[in-house]
């Protein structure tokens, strides 16, 4: 399979680094391009066998599958520019908000399109992605999306209407969790821990707690109860989280981000 990547920015490079690390494709079978040439060269420096081409119109006919990793606003002109090419790849968009109907309208009625939403932990094989396929895409196209996204973490096929909420939760979610880790570490510093020790303790606590949710399949509330001794330290901390609205802050973050994803469709 010849894989193309259009847009070698933060998410495109995270995804490609993850796919290459997983060994799903060889770098010599991957074509890349970016409007900002330095972005493509940074990837090329890391994986010298990657093939750098000048633009999407040059890349698309040479690839079987193309990951579209440009900003939502750049998708339409890019696809319309490629719609008249003789050979069309399977388009795998990761753009927030851009719908299957838009992808199909802009790429032409025969084009095969998939809309997906990965997240940056894909870079280390710990991503979460969801995708939905367009009406002309086949089951084997869905399998390709499952293989590519699955090479860098967990993946689910979902009805398209769920993808904005997925974007608000797991697409944007790493940023919420980074903020939580930073704030936990600040708390440790406030209480006298050296900064590096506080950051290490905070990050590993988040990793461990998340892994327990996945491995034990227990409800988070039940796992939390096991930490929370009567009259102990944890309940004193939890009281403050409730008082200062952490739970509602996270609910509202996912709600706003989901609404923003819906707005991005225009
Ligand atoms: N960042 C994240 O965590 C996630 C992002 N996404 C989605 O991924 C997409 C990319 O986001 P992100 O990586 O953050 O963005 P970046 O801005 O980091 O990367 C996009 C790159 O694409 C380039 N580009 C724009 N137009 C073209 C074109 N026609 N041909 C080739 N390259 C082009 C841009 O160049 P220039 O800057 O010169 O325009 C830029 O270098 C977005 O649609 C976003 O919604 C999805 C999941 C998570
Ligand atoms: O902030 C954004 O719009 C992108 C989409 C999901 C994560 N980052």
TrEMBL record:
GO biological process annotation, one example: L-proline biosynthetic process
Domain of life: Bacteria
Major localization class: cytoplasm
Oxidoreductase is among the record's keywords: yes
Residues annotated for NADP(+) binding in this entry: 6-11, 69-72
Domain (Pyrroline-5-carboxylate reductase dimerisation): residue spans on this chain: 160-264
InterPro entries: 6-PGluconate_DH-like_C_sf (IPR008927), NAD(P)-bd_dom_sf (IPR036291), P5C_Rdtase_cat_N (IPR028939), P5CR-like_CS (IPR053790), P5CR_dimer (IPR029036), Pyrroline-COOH_reductase (IPR000304)
GO molecular function, one term: pyrroline-5-carboxylate reductase activity
UniProt keyword terms in alphabetical order: Amino-acid biosynthesis, Cytoplasm, NADP, Oxidoreductase, Proline biosynthesis
Residue ranges annotated for the Pyrroline-5-carboxylate reductase catalytic N-terminal domain, each copy included: 2-97
PANTHER family assigned: PYRROLINE-5-CARBOXYLATE REDUCTASE, PYRROLINE-5-CARBOXYLATE REDUCTASE 3
Family in the record: Belongs to the pyrroline-5-carboxylate reductase family.
NCBIfam families (alphabetical): proC
Protein name as it appears in the record: Pyrroline-5-carboxylate reductase
């Amino acid at each position: 399979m010849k894989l193309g990547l259009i847009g070698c920015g933060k998410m495109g490079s995270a995804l490609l680094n993850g796919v290459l690390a997983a060994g799903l494709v060889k770098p010599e079978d991957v074509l890349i391009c970016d409007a900002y040439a330095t972005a493509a060269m940074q990837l090329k420096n890391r994986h010298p066998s990657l093939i750098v081409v000048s633009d999407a119109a040059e890349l698309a006919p040479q690839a079987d599958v193309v990951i579209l990793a440009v900003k939502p606003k750049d998708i339409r002109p890019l696809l319309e520019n490629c719609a008249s090419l003789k050979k069309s790849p399977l388009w795998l968009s990761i753009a927030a908000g851009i719908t299957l109907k838009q992808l199909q309208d802009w790429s032409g009625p025969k084009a095969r399109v998939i809309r997906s939403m990965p997240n940056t932990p894909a870079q280390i094989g710990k991503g979460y992605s969801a995708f939905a396929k367009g009406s002309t895409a086949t089951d084997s196209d869905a399998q390709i999306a499952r293989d590519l996204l699955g090479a860098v973490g967990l993946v689910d096929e979902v009805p398209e209407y769920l993808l904005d909420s997925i974007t608000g939760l797991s697409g944007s979610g790493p940023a919420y969790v980074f903020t939580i880790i930073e704030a936990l570490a600040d708390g440790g510093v406030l209480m006298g821990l050296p900064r590096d020790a506080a950051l290490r303790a905070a990050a590993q606590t988040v990793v461990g707690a998340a892994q327990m949710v996945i491995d034990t399949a227990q409800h988070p509330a039940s796992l939390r109860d096991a930490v929370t001794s009567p009259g102990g330290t944890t309940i004193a901390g939890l009281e403050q989280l409730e008082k200062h609205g952490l739970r509602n802050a996270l609910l509202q973050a996912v709600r706003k981000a989901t609404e923003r994803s819906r707005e991005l469709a225009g």
